[in-house]
Design a protein that fits this description.
Shape: globular
Helix content: 25-40%
CATH class of one domain: Alpha Beta
Number of helices: 7
Order of helices and strands: EEEHEHHHEEEHEHEHEE
Number of strands: 11
CATH architecture of one domain: 3-Layer(aba) Sandwich
């Protein structure tokens, strides 16, 4: 049996396993939260948002509150959304399934047996399915929104674009330095997409990225972050408390990381004194029933 390493026994100055020390954020004075409270919102730098012409949103599922808030902050920006797991057809099927639950014999038996909690849950599921489908239809019908029922990856197929194909969708005359912001929540595919994104860093003002499964992908993550930090600064970090901590560490398995282009940081611009993370007034626990993770740098 391999003995667990006691962090208290580390040599002074030695990095503990899965340490976030190398990714300590440079907290500047223009952080804002976009998106709903709890899961779905991200903390970003306002300077990376307000002047961009395009938001590339990779992964929206059933929550576009970030994209809606982004559009309010940058009303001239076009919002490009990519997600192969969602569409009007998919959401219609979920609505029909929720309705069928209400009409099922099992539901009627539950009502007759006075299972009020079960009855209430079924009606709440139906109401949510109807609300999500209606909201999605309105959102993608917005004049400045373009939705594709395709994801992004390092392959091109009927389900996925490659990064180069995504950037070719943007008119060349509108593709300028720092004219694009990227939100990425694509369930591990970030490790396949980000290496190909390097060719387009010039155009990217900032990014909000969810890194998944860091308990098994930490070396990939650390290597990607070293390359990203050559062009971007880490502006914010938050641990997603839907996932557990990496074993024998204080680091969550899922991290939300905000990056800001280095050339948008003014020479000599002072960073604020590093506060405890999560930051009160900005961060929210993804799972509101559990305490948020404190991050150790």
């Amino acid at each position: 049996m391999v003995a667990r390493r006691d962090e208290s026994a580390l040599i002074p100055g030695e990095e503990p396993p899965n340490s976030l020390r190398a990714f300590r954020p440079m907290r500047l004075r223009d952080l804002v939260r976009l998106g709903r409270a709890f899961d779905g919102g991200y903390v970003v730098n306002e300077r990376a948002v307000r002047k961009v012409r395009h938001l590339l949103s990779f992964g929206i599922n059933d929550d576009w509150s970030f994209e809606a808030d982004f559009s309010r902050r940058a009303p001239a920006a076009k919002i490009w959304c990519f997600d192969h797991s969602v569409s009007n057809d998919v959401l219609r099927e979920k609505l029909v399934a929720a309705l069928n639950e209400i009409l099922s014999a099992r539901f009627i038996l539950g009502a007759l047996s006075l299972n009020f909690r079960g009855v209430r849950n079924k009606f709440e599921a139906l109401e949510r399915a109807a609300r999500v489908r209606s909201g999605f239809s309105r959102f993608i019908a917005s004049e400045n929104v373009q939705f594709f029922s395709k994801g992004v990856s390092n392959i091109s197929s009927s389900k996925f674009f490659r990064i180069g194909e995504v950037f070719k969708l943007i008119p060349r005359t509108e593709l300028e330095e720092n004219s694009v912001f990227i939100k990425m929540d694509i369930e591990q595919a970030e490790f396949r997409v980000l290496p190909e994104l390097a060719e387009y860093y010039k155009y990217v003002s900032g990014m909000a990225i969810e890194f998944h499964d860091l308990d098994i992908l930490w070396p990939n993550f650390a290597n990607l972050m070293r390359h990203l930090k050559e062009t971007f600064v880490v502006a914010h970090l938050h641990g997603n408390n839907y996932c557990e901590l990496i074993p024998n560490s204080k680091t969550p398995k899922l991290l939300e990381i905000t990056l800001l282009k280095r050339n948008l940081v003014e020479a000599g611009e002072p960073a604020q004194e590093s506060p405890p993370y999560p930051i009160a007034g900005l961060d929210q626990p993804n799972d509101q029933t559990r305490e948020d993770y404190g991050l150790d740098f």
